[in-house]
């Protein structure tokens, strides 16, 4: 099976606000499995459904895996909500949809995540550090926000200019 393509900036679909999932069916389960495969293949530690062209409120994360097959423990979250936020932290972020760029982003240091898994079971987790940053990053995708929207206008405009030049060169 071919892996789904990860949309890349400036694809306008990355700016859409995702719709809640009202029913988990085989299509949603297949999407989640595909997203996990893409996340590990890229490699990344998180992937939101809009990044593979599905504007629905679903993301997958695994902040503890390495490049090895062992130790994989992906979590699928449907209709995630961040219900509590505490403190501030800065983190160097990158994104599979924002190629060749990283930047320091300020986020909440500690959060409470709520959502459901593929079987409709409730998920509730208090996350800190990298896990909190990753969850916030993926929830942002569901709201049509990229991490470059959270950096200074100057840094963002420099990246946009670089990216447009890169795309123009690729098109020949």
Give an overview of the whole structure.
The structure is a single chain. With 172 residues, the protein is α+β, with helices and mostly antiparallel strands. It has one domain: Peptide Deformylase (Alpha-Beta Complex), CATH 3.90.45. Helix content is 28%, strand content 31%. The chain has helices at residues 26-41, 129-142, 153-170; strands at 46-48, 58-61, 75-95, 98-116, 122-128. It has a five-stranded antiparallel β-sheet with strand order 1-2-3-4-5, with helices on both faces. Strand 3 and strand 4 form a beta hairpin. The protein is globular, with a radius of gyration of 16 Å. The model has no long low-confidence stretch (mean pLDDT 95).
Defining traits:
172 residues; alpha+beta; Peptide Deformylase; globular
Topology:
Layout lengths: L25 H16 L4 E3 L9 E4 L13 E21 L2 E19 L5 E7 H14 L10 H18 L2
Antiparallel strand pairs: 1-2, 2-3, 3-4, 4-5
Oligomer: single chain
What is the N-to-C order of secondary-structure elements (H for helix, E for strand)? HEEEEEHH
User: What is the molecular shape?
Assistant: globular
The biggest sheet, with number of strands, parallel, antiparallel or mixed sense and barrel status, is: 5 strands, antiparallel
Put simply, the count of helices is 3
Query: What class would the helix/strand composition place it in?
Result: alpha+beta
Radius of gyration: 16 Å
Let me know the CATH homologous superfamily.
Answer: Peptide deformylase
- Helix fraction by DSSP (H/I, runs of at least 4): 25-40%
